[in-house]
Amino acid sequence: MSPESTGQNEHHIRVYRRRFRAWRGNRPFWAGLFTMAGGLPIAYFPYADLHLGNMTLAMSTTAGAGSLIIGVLLITLGFTMWFHHIVRVFAGIAAILLALISLPVANIGGFVIGFLLSLVGGALSVSWAPAAPQRADEATGGEQAGPAKGLPYEERPEGELQGAAAVPRQHGAGLDTAAEAEGGRHRAG
């Protein structure tokens, strides 16, 4: 490599880190992580044995298969939030419902740990929204060439509105005064 090629000298860990940050920013990453982390204790505790010296304490219940199914579904929903984020609202609601169902079925929701993690993950998934697309001047870091073509209607200067966009903006009903609501008639006294 020559010293003139600056792009080639970048360390590969930085490249992977930057790619991961971009990937993570385009999906409900933390929602999926919390949901998967909540599914693990729900699925694990009914099949775990705790050894205290010579005594074995088994956490298994008659609903062990149900808790395994709930845990696996929560882990699957977490991966769905990551890799198919278009159905994030469905996955979030399903995670919340499965977390609630895990309370009576799976050892009080994986001893409340799995319940809380799944509940937070589902709520984060339902509330997550993709970022607004950047305007051309923000993406390039400079000024936009020509008139404000990328600006929404409300932010354009009045001289640049043409055609159907030149129709004046109408105010919502919440902004009308009582006189305007009655057709502009004013009452005397």
UniProtKB/TrEMBL annotation:
Transmembrane segments: 28-45, 57-79, 86-105, 111-129
Pfam families tied to this protein: DUF6114
UniProt keyword annotations, A-Z: Membrane, Transmembrane, Transmembrane helix
Region (Disordered): 135-189
Protein name per UniProt: Integral membrane protein
Natural source organism: Streptomyces durocortorensis
